[in-house]
Amino acid sequence: MKVLVINAGSSSLKYQLYDMNDESVLAKGLVERIGMDSSILTHKPTGKEEVTEVSEILEHTTAIRKVLDKLVDKEHGVLNSVDEIQAVGHRVVHGGEAFKSSALVTPEAKAEIRRLFDLAPLHNPPAISGITAAEKNMPNVPQVVVFDTAFHQTMDEKVFLYPIPKVLYKKHHVRRYGMHGTSHYYVSRVAAEYLNRPLEDLKMITCHIGNGGSLTAIKDGKSFDTSMGLTPLEGLMMGTRSGDLDPAVVTFVMNKEELTISEVNSMLNKHSGLLAISGSSSDMRDITDGLEAGEPNATLAFEMYEYRLRKYIGSYAAALNGVDVIVFTAGVGENSAVVREKVCENLTYLGVEIDPELNKIRSGEPRRISSPNSKVEVLVIPTNEELVIARDTLRIVEESK
Ligand code: ADP
């Protein structure tokens, strides 16, 4: 079965086409600047040259039509006909409490995703645009939605509730949901497989650190706790997000600086984190370059980032009453040897010991970076959220037959 995976943003649409017989990627690409004067479609068929096309793409329906055209293109295509696509899987950020796993797209499912617009105003509306656009272009193909939040629905009430008036949970569904669920799910499974040990026996802390970042404590293969909350703002210090702070900072700053809700939201989500402290970049590559050069602001940004990450690992080790495996994944986790080194250097009290040489290797494959003496297995596992979406799509479609 061939499955098209779609990740729709407000002005972008990423896609990957899978042949699920061997889980190979036939093509992938990205449409950027949807709704702007010149949109860019970048298409990469596996084993062939990447092609870029600039045109006017005003909305997602046209974007998907252009993608389908490329997939069957004589020169750059990988399919004889669009009919070869037998299912479409969509990434949806927020599934609230309604979606504890992936689901077939039905009018009810779409209505529920719309009800969740309030909780994910930036993410869920473009997902609906992507679903509607795919339905218009491929009316007879089953569609599946896969949620970032679903994996975390196993969290206990004592973990997901905030200690604020309970009426806010009842009325407005204010609670911890967590994000990056497909990634935490995927790397935890790959970790158990790599170690050749039963998932249920392992207490794991998975660190998904990219532009955004979250940690998950995993017990019995299930999400026990996770650092993102009602929104992706809670938890770690990130590229442009503050992560945890005293909630009173928000009202204090709003008052002093006469900021609106939208301004303070933008400050905390887009102008904080590494960017705010370094004063120059949200990208960990620039921060570590600055660290090496002894640049004081980049050094402080790095030290705060590492310190906050380490504190979370410590708190999750306490939450789980121990830790057997720590996994690093996503842009920073997979690529930044210095972040991993500095974090692990200060986790010796847990019995963590990494091998500096193994830590330097970059292979794109799951690998161990801890030394044989380490009491905790420390792994680097490249994440693959698209593959999880493709697998779930296949499963849900087969189950619905
Ligand atoms: P997103 O959260 O947007 O999905 P990614 O997981 O792709 O992002 O992570 C992107 C981030 O990864 C970049 O902004 C950069 O900070 C970091 N990164 C990528 N490569 C490296 C590297 N070699 N060293 C340090 N950081 C890196």
Keywords:
six-stranded mixed beta sheet, single chain, 401 residues, 2 domains, alpha/beta, Nucleotidyltransferase, domain 5, eight-stranded mixed beta sheet
In words, what does this structure look like?
Its EC number is 2.7.2.1. Helices cover about 40% and strands about 20% of the residues. It has about 400 residues and is of the alpha/beta class. The longest helix has 25 residues, at about 295-320. The protein has two domains: about 1-145, ATPase, nucleotide binding domain (Nucleotidyltransferase, domain 5), CATH 3.30.420.40; about 200-385, 2-Layer Sandwich (Nucleotidyltransferase, domain 5), CATH 3.30.420.40. The two termini are about 15 Å apart. Helix 11 crosses helix 13 (about 335-345). The mean pLDDT is about 95. The strands form two sheets. An eight-stranded mixed beta sheet has the order 5-4-3-2-1-6-8-7, sandwiched between helices. The chain has a six-stranded mixed beta sheet with strand order 11-10-9-12-14-13, with helices on both faces. The structure holds adenosine-5'-diphosphate. Adenosine-5'-diphosphate (ADP) binds near residues 212, 285 and 288.
> Helix count, per DSSP?
15
Give the ordered list of helices and strands. Answer: EEEEEHEEHHEHHHEEEHHHHHEHHHEEH
Please give the number of β-strands: 14
Highest CATH level, the class of the largest domain: Alpha Beta
Q: Report helical residue fraction.
A: 25-40%
Shape: globular
Strand order of the largest sheet: 5-4-3-2-1-6-8-7
For the largest beta-sheet, the strand count, sense and barrel status come to: 8 strands, mixed
Distance between the termini: 14 Å
Can you tell me the CATH superfamily of the largest domain?
Answer: ATPase, nucleotide binding domain
Percentage of residues in DSSP E strands: 15-25%
Number of domains: 2
CATH topology of the largest domain: Nucleotidyltransferase, domain 5
Question: Any idea what the CATH architecture of the largest domain is?
Answer: 2-Layer Sandwich
Q: Mean pLDDT score, rounded?
A: 97
Bound molecules: adenosine-5'-diphosphate
Q: What structural class do the secondary elements suggest?
A: alpha/beta
The radius of gyration computed from the alpha-carbon positions, rounded to a whole number of angstroms, is 22 Å
Low-confidence stretches are: none
